[in-house]
């Protein structure tokens, strides 16, 4: 047992403590959702610009997209996403996916995941959302 504890302490010293999971609130006329952010440079920059209001438009009947006021840092990308994935396409393109699917290369930077069902955004047309830190 002592070796396990010592190993855990050594691991934290060499890799650094993980960032506490940050949560945000996404508010819209269609409802309010919370989301948990992943720990990367892009999400740390996003937290620094909150609160922010975005005009979102529907894209390919799978996502709502909107332009952030400034660029976020680049990070690892992936092609697949699930219902509720929050992503970054271009350096300012914030995306809320309300269906499961995939995107072409270079892929998206994962910002986080909605706690619950993002299908409230599964409606045609634009919407304005506000993103802020959860209290």
Describe, in plain words, how this protein is organized in 3D.
- This protein is 16% helix and 39% strand.
- It has 135 residues and is α+β, with helices and mostly antiparallel strands.
- An 8-stranded antiparallel β-barrel has the order 1-2-9-6-7-4-3-10. It has a two-stranded antiparallel sheet with strand order 5-8.
- A hairpin with a 3-residue loop joins strand 3 and strand 4.
- The longest helix has 14 residues.
- The radius of gyration is 17 Å and the shape is globular.
- It starts with a helix and ends with a strand.
Concise overview:
This protein has about 140 residues and is α+β, with helices and mostly antiparallel strands.
Residue share in helices? 10-25%
Total number of strands: 10
Low-confidence runs of at least 5 consecutive residues? 2-19
Mean pLDDT: 88
End-to-end separation in angstroms reads 37 Å
Number of helices: 2
Radius of gyration using CA atoms only? 17 Å
Largest sheet: 8 strands, antiparallel, barrel
Which structural class is indicated by helix and strand composition? alpha+beta
Give, in spatial order, the strands making up the sheet with the most strands: 1-2-9-6-7-4-3-10
Question: Would you spell out the secondary-structure blueprint of this structure?
Answer:
Layout: H1 2-15, E1 23-28, E2 31-37, H2 41-48, E3 52-59, E4 63-67, E5 80-81, E6 85-88, E7 93-97, E8 101-102, E9 109-115, E10 127-133
Antiparallel strand pairs: 1-2, 1-10, 2-9, 3-4, 3-10, 4-7, 5-8, 6-7, 6-9
